[in-house]
Amino acid sequence: MNVRRPKIAPSLLSADFAAIADQIAMVEAAGADELHLDTMDGRFVPNITWGMKIVKDLRRLTALPFDCHLMIVEPERYVDAFREAGADVITFHYEATPHPHRLLRHLREIGAKAGIAINPGTPAAMLEDLIEEIDRVLVMSVNPGFGGQSFIERALVKVEEVRAVLERRNPACEIEVDGGIGLANIERAVRAGADVLVAGNSVFAAGDPPAALREMRSRVDTARAASR
Ligand SMILES: O=C(CO)[C@@H](O)[C@H](O)COP(=O)(O)O
Q1: Active site includes 33?
Q2: Mapping DSSP to helix (H, G, I), strand (E, B) and coil, where does residue 114 land?
Q3: Which domains are delineated in the chain?
Q4: pTM for this model (two decimals)
């Protein structure tokens, strides 16, 4: 049974980068467990965000773990640089490389937590031969590329499927859910088996972001206690 305390990871994609130091300090003070940093290349996804330089500069602002989600083609070309820039968890997309097994092993070799993400159209079963190599499975609950999209309910079934396999073969591995997470679904995501909840717009676009984060924290803890 999974008894870990779920983590909440505000997604900086939705933050105001003109005031990024304040935005990070705000979510850190409100209890964020880690920060989610989305790198997009305009090829794997239609949007473009930031690279290693930004990660390296942000690293100086906080000791919170950095969860770097690479929505890029050929992620193997860049993971070492993201690690050197300060990434703690590096998550690449199953759909973005022909060699996910090799890349997962490499991530552990360079001292990163090895994360792998699956798009809404990718079945959980595609991870079957990788399970023991993974530290974190990221189940996308929107199609990657943009913040503020609607949550795809089917993702919860996928979280349950992944949790069932992990319980048998790799119980230390975490499950992260990313996209459209907010008060309407965060408890259900925890009950399905999620350990890490990424929240972009539901935190940074809220009228009172610290209050929104604290409410999520409270609901997440209640949901985990009830599912024990
Ligand atoms: O990876 C992505 C989007 O592709 C996410 O990390 C978003 O940043 C989540 O934002 P919200 O859906 O929570 O607003």
Answers
A1: no
A2: strand
A3: 7-226 (3.20.20.70)
A4: 0.97
